[in-house]
Amino acid sequence: DLVRSRGLGDVYKRQGLFNAMDKQALPSAINKVGVITSATGAAFKDILTVLKRRAPQLEVILYPAQVQGAQAHQQLIDKINLANQRDEVDVIILGRGGGSLEDLWCFNHEQLAYAIFNSDIPIVSAVGHEIDTTISDFVADVRAATPSAAAELVSPDSSYIHNQINEFKSRLQRAFTLYLTQQQHKHCLLYTSPSPRDRTRS
Questions:
Q1: What is the pLDDT of residues 47-77, one digit of tens each?
Q2: pLDDT of the residue at 1
Q3: What is the pLDDT of residues 120-157, one digit of tens each?
Q4: Confidence of residue 20 (pLDDT cuts 50, 70, 90)
Q5: How far is CA 71 from the centre of its chain?
Q6: What distance in Å separates the CA atoms of residue 151 and residue 93, rounded to the nearest whole number?
Q7: How much is the pLDDT for 18?
Q8: Which distant-in-sequence residues (6+ apart) come within 8 Å of 129 by Cβ?
Q9: How far is CA 123 from CA 89, 94, 102, 178, 180, in A?
Q10: Phi-psi map region of 133: left, alpha, beta (phi>0 left; psi -120 to 50 alpha)
Q11: What is the mean pLDDT of the chain?
Q12: How far is CA 21 from CA 6, 14, 87, in A?
């Protein structure tokens, strides 16, 4: 395991960065999704593909950053801080596609870990493939196995919502039809029943 092999996991755990009680839940209603990743990488394309299919109404704001190299961690930190300063998205996806241990190493940087931990906006970590594990995955509010999985986590399935709306409409229509039938029945009884005066004369 990447974290344990470097002896970093226990350090961050003692510092409280992995505490489940401090993790933020994803918002129940998400309208804008921030993505911190490479603008030209496959991860961003995968995220857009999933969001377009599942929830095309969502607005996506890209905060482009390097995702590997000596300065990558600082760019990632800057984009997290920028997203929080602007406060324009409901959730952030932080990630990249798969790569070697060295390629993913910037996601283990201590300063990045604290930037994720201190973010007021919930962060979904989506670094590499399912078998890849980084500090960012443990510190983030939610971990997704892949960028595509992260996109699924933050997006409602439009077809499911559409079906739910149709079901609600059908129930409402049935209830209204039943109400009209009952009202018509009451009116029929009212007009066909003899009045008190008629009963007295008879």
A1: 999 999 999 999 999 999 999 999 999 999 9
A2: 46
A3: 999 999 998 877 788 899 999 999 999 999 999 999 86
A4: confident
A5: 28
A6: 8
A7: 82
A8: 97, 98, 145, 146
A9: 11, 7, 23, 48, 51
A10: beta
A11: 84
A12: 25, 14, 23
Least confident of 1-5, 9-13, 78-82: 1-5
Up-side HSE of residue 11: CA atoms within 13 Å toward CB? 12
Q: Tokens 């008879």, residue?
A: 202
Q: Which residues make beta-bridge pairs with 92?
A: 34, 123
Residues in the chain: 202
Q: In angstroms, what CA-CA distances link 20 with 13, 25, 43, 141?
A: 11, 10, 27, 8
Q: Using alpha carbons, list the distances in angstroms from residue 111 to 35, 76, 108, 119.
A: 19, 10, 9, 12
What is the dihedral sign for C-alpha 123, 103, 109, 134? positive
Report which of 99, 86, 78 is spatially closest to residue 36, judged by C-alpha positions.
78
CA distances to 82, 106, 180 from 153, rounded to whole Å, are: 23, 24, 43
